[in-house]
Amino acid sequence: MAEVARETDYAPHHKKKIAFILSAMRHFASELEADGWHVDYVRLDSPENTGALPSEIARAAQRHSCASVVVTEPGEWRVLDALASLPEQHGIAVEILYEDRFICSRNAFADWADGRKQMRMEHFYREMRRKTGLLMDGDKPVGGKWNFDAENRKPPKSGMSFPGPLRSDPDAVTQDVLALVDEHFANHFGTLEPFWFAVTRDGAEAAFDRFVDVALPRFGDYQDAMLRDEKYLYHAVVSLYLNVGLLDPLDVCRRVERAYRDGHAPLNAAEGFIRQVIGWREYVRGIYWLQGPEYVDENVFGHTRPLPDFFWTGSTEMACVRACVEQTRDEAYAHHIQRLMVTGNFAMLAGVDPRAVHEWYLAVYADAFEWVELPNTLGMSQFADGGLLASKPYAASGNYINRMSDHCNGCRYKVHEKTGPEACPFNYLYWDFLARHRDTLGNNPRLAQPYRTWDGFDDARRRNARDDARNFLHELDRSATGRAV
Ligand SMILES: Cc1cc2nc3c(=O)[nH]c(=O)nc-3n(C[C@H](O)[C@H](O)[C@H](O)COP(=O)(O)OP(=O)(O)OC[C@H]3O[C@@H](n4cnc5c(N)ncnc54)[C@H](O)[C@@H]3O)c2cc1C
Ligand code: SF4
Fold first, then answer.
1. Atom 15 of ligand 1: nearest residue by CA position
2. Residue 427: CB within 6 Å of ligand 1?
3. Residue with CA nearest ligand 2 atom 7
4. Burial state string for 299-338 with b = 16 or more CB within 10 A and e = fewer than 16
5. pLDDT value, residue 482
6. What is the CA radius of gyration of the chain?
7. Which atom of ligand 2 is nearest to the CA of 401?
8. Angle between helices 249-261 and 267-274 (to 10 degrees)
């Protein structure tokens, strides 16, 4: 096992993300040793460390007199390329084994996708339900419906209590890693401490058990809600554990199904959770590998604006965006609707270059790895692939954010004002986005209603919205410093 600089700096990762991965690696190495394995472990600050996976593999092969290495499928095109370079650059043969931490293999996904005009997640998800038998009564879905999402959009209510995720205390191994990260990555984005992520399988299992016990019953109902003072609501906060292999996706889904069958959680919660894991999570991975390394270049709207500085600083008067960025900085976590409907929505409406948006999401979240982050960002949140992944852009005005959150109460902008200096920027940016991209979106049947509404506005209203958007974006460009981290 090797901690290599190339993996810590291919993106300006959040400090908590680096600490989480390094500490989980070190704990895993100790567990293997306790089980009797010999682990050859190269630390990040070891003087001999060459800083890249291929050269570290080559050094290890020499130490152990190996002519070939056996690896499991990596999670990114970048790492696959690095491994593929081993035979030519280092004279080492490589055998790549099937990765069994996913339910649907790359080949099985390619077979499913073959010949389909549209690769909709919902169709894939039904196949996965049949394949795993999760929430099935024979060949029928439990409850008579595949999807209970319509019940999962309740706005937050005041007076609700939120249990929050289980917090682990850093042990001596983690303390060492925190000191290392503090020393080597001081200029990276994010707050390092308090650090409370689990870094072992037992710790991740305990965190998941707590989620099932105290949060799962309400997970479905408030899945899309956002509250200023509640970072986690009823979300599981387990993507980071699933993505590094501390939790197994099929196992967590079986435990959630059991909670439903034991009467502990309602069907809309259990189905909602299982759909995210065997549906969305597996589906985006399939798309990532199917689309190839060029997927990252998709940009159907031709957006070119640099990422605004406030994505790094949180320094904006838009209360919803500020809250998401500050939470991201402190926790390396934001839940799905924060990522999709606040920061992602803003970036798309403002015409930010989707690659810059992708690079930000890849850096700032503890769960971010390209196979899952890229399709979510580029496809789902920016619609940059022209609708491969989403049937319409996730574009929304301030009205949506106001309905699903309490951010607007404390904002300098007024969410009900459509134009003018007090108006919520999401309002005029939304209409400007639709007007700007009518050539690309005008024939989308799911946008017929918004375009009818736009056409029904009088000339002055349309002109004001477009002028306000232009002025706002001009001001955004004027204040940009091109800051990267
Ligand atoms: C722009 C954008 C970027 C994203 N980047 C990532 C990323 O880098 N890594 C990542 O794991 N997820 C990513 N997601 C998906 C989702 O936001 C996170 O998985 C989720 O917020 C993690 O928090 P949680 O564990 O509390 O999830 P919960 O809401 O409790 O959901 C349970 C689990 O379902 C899975 N899941 C839910 N939605 C998705 C999804 N759309 N795609 C894949 N898995 C999903 C996750 O494993 C998650 O742990 C992104 C979404 C968007 C819109
Ligand atoms: S008014 Fe607009 S900018 Fe302010 S919090 Fe609400 S949606 Fe966000």
1. 336
2. no
3. 398
4. bbbebebbbbbbbbebebebbbbbbbbebbbebbbbbbbb
5. 62
6. 23
7. 7
8. 170
**What does the alpha-carbon distance between residue 442 and residue 446 come to, in Å, rounded to a whole number?**
10
Query: What is the per-residue pLDDT across 59-91, written as a single tens digit (0 to 9) for each?
Result: 999 999 999 999 999 999 999 999 999 999 999
Q: Which two tokens stand for residue 313?
A: 């600083």
| Measured distance CA(248)–CA(355) in Å, rounded | 30
Helix (H, G, I), strand (E, B) or coil at 277: helix
Q: List residues near ligand 2 (CB under 6 A).
A: 318-320, 398, 401-402, 407-408, 411, 413, 415, 424-426
Sign (positive or negative) of CA dihedral 442, 390, 406, 221: positive
Sheet strands (E) in 164-280: none
Residue 485 pLDDT exceeds 50 = no
Of all residues in the chain, the percent with pLDDT exceeding 90 is 92
- Choose one of 415, 422, 427, 429 to mutate for the ligand 2 pocket test, by most ligand atoms within 8 angstroms of C-beta: 415
- Please name which of 191, 281, 203 lies closest in space to residue 241, comparing C-alpha atoms: 203
